[in-house]
Amino acid sequence: MNFLVLLAIVLLVIAGHQLLRVIELSRGLKKTKEWQITETDNNMMGKAMLTFMIFFFLFFFWQVNRWMDRSLPPSASEHGVKIDMLWDYNMYLITVVFIITNFFLFWFAYKYRGLKTTKASFITHNNKLEMAWTIIPAVVLAFIIIFGLKFWNEIMEDAKDPNRVVVELYAKQFDWSARYAGKDGKLGETDYRQIDGSNAMGMDTTDAAGFDDIANIKNEFHIPVNREIELVMRSRDVIHSAYLPHFRAQMNCVPGMITTFKFKPTKTTVEMKNDPYVVKMMAGINAQRAKFGKDPVEFDYLLLCNKICGASHYNMQMNVIVDTEADYNAWMAKQKVFKSAVAAK
Questions:
Q1: Does residue 326 belong to any structural domain of this protein?
Q2: Confidence of residue 1 (pLDDT cuts 50, 70, 90)
Q3: Sign for the pseudo-dihedral over CA of 224, 322, 90, 243
Q4: Does the residue 254 lie in any domain?
Q5: What's the CA gap between 223 and 244, in Å, rounded?
Q6: What is d(CA 253, CA 241) in angstroms, rounded to the nearest whole number?
Q7: Overall number of domains in the chain
């Protein structure tokens, strides 16, 4: 088999060499020098540009159609609808500019191909063109920036809902832990010097405000639908980034400081699993997994790390379960508060 491959390569090289010889000999039959470009050459290249443009655009639209259903499902948070709107607006704008710009790029390459009957014009300056390609992009970008700042300020406001759920996300190489504020709605203080086997999140065991906290939740954490969630984030070691793609939420977790983000989930995990787009998306994913002999998977909201934080960064994730209010309360009732959990150990 290796001999046949080697033989095929040798024959291909010989054939290529002979083809180049034929081309070299054919040049001698022309009346013009080989470096001189003829009108026939220019016409051929101009038409080739138009042909390439057609296939280029067909390939672009095929790609959009082929991979569109691999994008994220509709947002599952209130503010995520605004982010998706800005995203869609930007993508539509970019697509229109992309099509117009590339159309004229190829069309001009054809229209202004070298012909004996044409003469190039030398234009040093054109005020109208300068104004057009300065003012139009400035106005369009101004709208994007204005709406972006408006949405940013709304999204990044401090959490004020008295009925909000306060959850701390604690990052370390290479996993997440969650902690819930107790009935007082406040998280207890922390002290890294108190980190040990029974106090992995470094809670201050002398701070009474943290005695009713529910700490060291692993693998998955639960939040109720249609209630404001305030995420409070810390990191033990390096910079991580708490990324919840389905809620369009992301915030860095920085050692030595606390960062926050608020959002309100609008769909439970069960509702999202039954969403037609998600059903179709997961069917496609599982069909692909089946080709490699892998078991099917179900949809889950995920908390990911979006900063390359080390060798096992890819594996740093945690499931997020969005429950109805009743299911959330039932789950919370099963969890132990920090004081009793430490005492039990």
A1: yes
A2: low
A3: positive
A4: yes
A5: 13
A6: 5
A7: 1
